[in-house]
Write a structure and sequence with these properties.
Length: 520
């Protein structure tokens, strides 16, 4: 899809705008021709002192309006009508050169027209505007930028004529005697120019007008004021001079001051709107970054989970083949069974951790509190990890002092102790030491697991309890596990109304985790 192409909603709005613009031109043409044909002066001149809409002008507006209406659906027919508009303009030029009105000169009495124009025919500036509109309709599809330029030039001619009439320009002498244009013609030509712009949304000025960014916002705010400002200020100046409130020079000074003030107000308004738009775009950008970050996290978590599950599953699969072969000695079979058991436990632990974190995110972690001695679940956790501890020849010092009772879930307290022991066993080298202690600290029970392992780097220490954060403690070691164990420890400690903290003097200096629980 072309990024510059308008959306479906915008396209529908543009079609509506084209239809309205075409309807304005057609209505002007129909009423003008009807007024001439039936001799109704009011249909040709909406104000007694304003120039009347000449019959040939009405015909040109009618044909141009029809051409614009058919432009979106029948471009070839629209081009044919554009040629007809150009032909009407050419006929009007011939009429002036030969002083012929082509039968349009029998007008109702009392109509106002420019002294330099022929009855029934458009004024010279109107002829030029029709020629420009007709040419724009002809090249609308093939050269949309050219069509926009021609249409805007026609609108400028109409705008200038309209301002002249509004400010009381003479229709009897001077240049204005040759450029008198009826209000209907002014409105219809401006409408036709707007419709031609809307019919070419992907070229020239339109992408800027339809831009959703700061540039489009500035143009949409400034352009209407730039068009209306001369009308309002010029009208006030002329009205003030006619009423004798001030002379021309003072009126000019007032107009300059008012223009500067309104331009300043408009600039501030645009700046405020751009700032609001900027804030909105920044918020959207941040939301998009968060969504992209969450998507990357999900991908990373999936890759991490897949890798962690694949390793023990692969080991179990390989050991199963050895067992199926039936060629293992009793000693070798014992080793294979221990390997399978160890990797199955690792696989089960990864799955349980992932399930617990998912339940934690949903607020659905099972928690059944009861009055318990916290030393009991800690002892069970030590029993579970005893084989691993023995295999790595790690010395365990357990000082489980009586600390009273806590209100907690025995299963979850064992999970806290088991995860901390798992972490200690994983990062403590063979021959190292793990110390497990319970102590009373006022109204709190303090449970400590300390090891002489690889320690925690200072830059990683603030993130140690974050999910999927893993540190090997060494640049040469690949971290194992999902990085969920300590996250679960923190959440489960908080479920018990307690807390957990991590301490380490740096890499190679071991780590100490302290869980604090409230006593009964």
């Amino acid at each position: 899809m072309n990024p510059d192409s308008p959306s479906t909603t915008a396209t529908e709005h543009l079609r509506i705008a084209i239809g309205i613009a075409a309807a304005i031109a057609i209505a002007a043409g129909v009423t003008g021709l009807a007024g001439w044909f039936f001799g109704i002066a009011r249909l040709m001149s909406i104000a007694s002192e304003a120039p009347a809409l000449m019959p040939m002008s009405a015909l040109a507006l009618l044909v141009a309006g029809l051409a614009l209406a058919y432009a979106p659906s029948h471009p070839r027919f629209s081009r044919g009508l554009g040629v007809l508009v150009l032909a009407i303009a050419a006929a009007a030029v011939i009429g002036y050169l030969t002083e012929t009105d082509f039968g349009f000169g029998n007008l109702p009495a009392g109509l106002t027209s420019g002294a330099g124009t022929l009855p029934g025919l458009p004024a010279p500036n109107s002829i030029l505007a029709y020629a420009l509109v007709g040419s724009a309709l002809i090249v609308l599809r093939r050269a949309p930028v050219v069509a926009q330029g021609l249409a805007l030039l026609a609108a400028t001619i109409a705008y200038l004529a309209g301002l002249g009439e509004l400010f009381g320009a003479s229709t009897a002498q001077g240049l204005s005697a040759y450029t008198a244009m009826s209000p209907q013609t002014v409105m219809a030509l401006c409408a036709l120019a707007t419709g031609i712009l809307c019919a070419t949304p992907g070229a020239g000025l339109m992408p800027l007008l339809m831009d959703r960014g700061a540039a489009g916002l500035a143009v949409r705010r400034f352009l209407p004021m730039a068009i209306l400002l001369p009308v309002v200020l010029g009208g006030l100046r002329v009205a003030g001079e006619l009423q004798g409130l001030f002379d021309t020079r003072f009126g000019t000074a007032l107009m300059a001051v008012a223009s500067a003030a309104l331009a300043g107000i408009l600039t501030v308004d645009i700046a405020i709107a751009i700032r609001q738009l900027d804030h909105t775009l920044r918020a959207e950008h941040r939301a998009r970054e968060v969504a992209e970050s969450e998507s990357r996290v999900k991908d990373d978590v999936l890759a991490l989970l897949t890798g962690e599950l694949r390793t023990p599953a692969g080991v179990i699969h390989a050991q199963a083949h050895l067992l199926q072969a039936g060629v293992l000695t009793n000693e070798k079979m014992k080793q294979v069974i221990e390997t399978v058991s160890r990797n199955a436990a690792r696989l089960r632990q990864s799955i349980d951790d992932a399930g617990d974190v998912a339940a934690m995110a949903r607020g659905g972690v099972l928690f059944e509190p009861a009055e318990i001695d916290p030393r009991d679940p800690i002892r069970r956790a030590l029993d579970v990890w005893a084989p691993e501890i023995a295999a790595k020849r790690i010395a365990v010092t357990a000082q489980l002092m009586p600390v009273g009772f806590v209100q907690g879930d025995a299963v979850r307290l064992q999970q806290i102790a088991s995860n901390l022991l798992s972490n200690a066993v994983k990062f403590t080298p063979p021959g190292g030491e793990i110390r497990v202690e319970t102590a009373r600290d006022g109204d709190l029970v303090r449970f400590t697991v300390e090891d002489t392992g690889c320690g925690i780097p200072p830059e990683f220490l603030p993130h140690v309890f974050e999910p999927f954060k893993r540190s090997s403690g060494s640049l040469h070691e690949r971290p194992e596990g999902l990085g969920l164990g300590l996250t679960l420890v923190r959440h489960l400690a908080e479920l018990h109304g307690g807390s957990v903290t991590a301490h380490s003097d740096g890499a190679g200096r071991g780590a100490r985790f302290v869980v604090q629980l409230a006593t009964n």
